[in-house]
Amino acid sequence: MLRMSIDTSAYEQRAAKLRDFIVDLTLEICRRRTVDYLLQDYPQGGPDDMPAPGMESRVTEVLAAHLKDWKVAWSTHARTPGRDNLLARVGRGEPGYRKLFLLLHTDTVPAGDREAWKFEPFEPFEKAGKLYGRGVLDNKGPLASTFAAFKLLHEDEKDIPGQVVFGAVGDEEVGVGDGIEYLLEQGLIDATDAIVPDVAGEMREINIAEKGRLVVKVRAKGKQAHAMDPSKGVNAIHGAARFLRELENFRFRFEPHPILDPPTVNTGLVRGGSAPNSVAADCEVTLDIRYLPSMTAERIMADLEALAARVNMPGCRFIVEKVQHALPCEVPADAPIVKLIQQVAPDARPMGSGGGTFAKPLVHAGIQAVGWAPGHEATYHQANEEIEVAQLVTFAGRMAALARAIASMRV
After folding, report:
1. Rounded to 10 degrees, what is the CA torsion of 379, 384, 389, 395?
2. First-to-last CA distance in the chain?
3. Domain end marker among 305, 326, 347
């Protein structure tokens, strides 16, 4: 599988002619808000004027229009109306040849604090060789770049004996089962290899390992009373504060990993109380925990329950609840897909990530999936998101050459 040499020069030259296409497509789909969120986290209405989570069909309909013009076979699949996942295929699809899955996501995180932005996040633009706006890096710029690569592959379809599948899939940022999980459940994913361009790294990093993710809600339960005499109640907000003080000194039990950083815990949300003139009977803390393969969610939950039990506050009790869970994953550093990427990006090196991508469920489904992408991670999930146009163009050419080579190899 690794005997052939992959020459990217011809595809990079062709990709350079698609610069305007990549820029225009990125800007168009970034204008279409596909902000993902949990309904329970926004009881007063969705962020960024979103009437519902995701609404990824706003992006897939743009891609579908192009595919129709190109006369490429495509299909959409949705568990929830308005949250389409698009799949398209090129290549002859002959038996015995490899099938490569190029998988990107169409949703984004909320804009967040608007005062931190130097410009309107949903009015993307190009300036001095860079694109700016929510989603240009994560993940709509790489999506447009990969879509351009897919266009080039379509032009050469008769020369590709295997198959390349392009996936524009929703619900990555939250993960309630409307995206890749749904496609896997429905048996719609058939691939030998997969690349997920959602890790930045300026094409110099190949993400082969990801930490597990455990989202936990810790609920403090006190006793409501009138604010004129707080002593008659038990303030759950104070109880949650004491729990968080204990959490500052919490230490995980784990074995170090060769490429993954130590485990982390982040307090992402705190909600409590019902009115200023009432003692808060309830307070909820949401924790985002990223853990190593040597750890288990069950042990982490047990440790958090033990920590909550140590909080010294009479009349206040705690409920520790698992909300979301994704296992860690890992692909060998010498896996064929890693070596092939290094043929088109010789300076790319295997690395691990505390974040989660679509590679994780694919690996657990038995597909050799890794992350490789353009862009710098500095503005991931932050204000003033940006990406270099030149990287998107180069990536399109390299990806086209790589995908064609893989889909021309026998299993």
Report:
1. 20
2. 8
3. 326
Burial of 243 (0-12, 13-18, 19+ CB in 10 A): buried
Cα 81 from Cα 76, distance rounded (Å): 11
**CA gap 224, 278 in Å, rounded:** 7
Number of domains in the chain: 2
d(C-alpha 407, C-alpha 411), whole Å:
9
Domain extent, residue 168, equals: 9-210+329-406
Residue pointed to by tokens 């060789």: 129
347 is a catalytic site residue: no
In-domain check, residue 4: no
Are residues 249 and 188 located together in one domain of the fold?
no
Catalytic residue of the set 12, 84, 107, 173: 107
Same domain, 61 and 173: yes
Asked if 27 and 170 sit in the same domain, the reply is: yes
> pTM of the full predicted structure?
0.90
Count the neighbouring beta carbons within 10 Å of the beta carbon of residue 338: 19
Angle (deg, nearest 10), helices 297-309 and 236-248: 120
Is the pLDDT score of 1 beyond 50? Answer: no
Own/partner contacts of 298-303, CB < 8 Å, gap of 24 or more, are 299/253, 300/214, 300/216, 300/252, 301/214, 301/216, 303/250, 303/252, 303/253
Q: Which of 31, 395, 7, 53 is nearest to 203 (CA)?
A: 395
Residue 125 within any structural domain of the chain: yes
The 10s digit of each residue's pLDDT in 176-232 is 999 999 999 999 999 999 999 999 999 999 999 999 999 999 999 999 999 999 999
Q: Say which amino acid occupies 172.
A: E
Distances (CA, A) of 316 to 128, 136, 201, 283, 382: 57, 46, 46, 11, 36
Domain membership of residue 3 (yes or no) is no
Active site (annotated) includes residue 48: no
**Separation in Å, CA 253 to CA 28, 275, 391:** 47, 39, 40
- Sorted by sequence, the CB contacts under 8 Å of residue 81 that are 6+ apart come out as none
Choose, from 138, 172, 173, 388, the residue flagged as catalytic.
172
Residues 67 and 79 reside in one and the same domain: yes
